[in-house]
Amino acid sequence: MRKTQRLTLMALLVAQGLVLHIFERMLPVPFITPGAKLGLTNIITLIALYMFDFNEVFFIIVLRIILATLIGGSLSNFLYSMAGGILSFLAMYTLKKVGKDNVSIIGISMVGAVFHNIGQIIVAGLVIENAMIVTYLPVLVIAAVGTGFFIGLTAKYLLPFLKKITL
C-alpha cells in the first residue's frame, strides 16, 4: 500500500471510530454495570492492529480519543479513554506478537476489553483516591469478555474484506 493510501485509510479509520463513538453514546446502556459500554470503537483498533504498524495504530487511537473528547467529552472522559485505550492497545499488540498463530482476533479483542477496564479502574482509583474501586473490576471483566467476544467476531469478518479492497 502506498503512503497516501495508508494515510487515507488511517484517516478513514479515525473517522469511523468517531462515528462509532458517537453512535455508542446514543445507545441506552443495556448492562447492569454502570459505565460499561459495548466498546464499538475497539472494532477500529482491531482492524488497525492487523493492518498497520505499532506507531500508526497508536496514532489512530490517540487521535480518535482526542477528537472524541473535543466533540463532546470532558477531561475525565479523556483520562479514562486514554488510559483504557492505550493499556488495551499495548495488551493486544503484545498478545498478537507473542501469541501469533495461537490466539485469534477474538481472543485478542477479549483481552483488549479486559485491559481497557483495568486502565479505567486504575484512573478511577487515582481520581477518587480510593483503591476499593478495584472491587468493581470482576463485574467489568465479565462484561468485557462478552462484549470483547462480539467485537472480535465483527472484526474477524470485516478484516478480510477491508484487506481485499485496500490491496
UniProtKB/TrEMBL annotation:
Q: What is this protein called?
A: Heptaprenyl diphosphate synthase
Q: Which Gene3D superfamilies match?
A: 1.10.1760.20
Instruction: Establish whether keyword Iron is in the entry.
Output: no
List all membrane-crossing ranges: 7-23, 78-95, 107-128, 134-159
Instruction: Note whether Transmembrane occurs among the keywords.
Output: yes
Keywords on this record? Membrane, Transmembrane, Transmembrane helix
Q: Tell me what organism the protein belongs to.
A: Clostridium bovifaecis
Checking InterPro entries in the record gives: Hpre_diP_synt_I (IPR014535), Hpre_diP_synth_I (IPR010898)
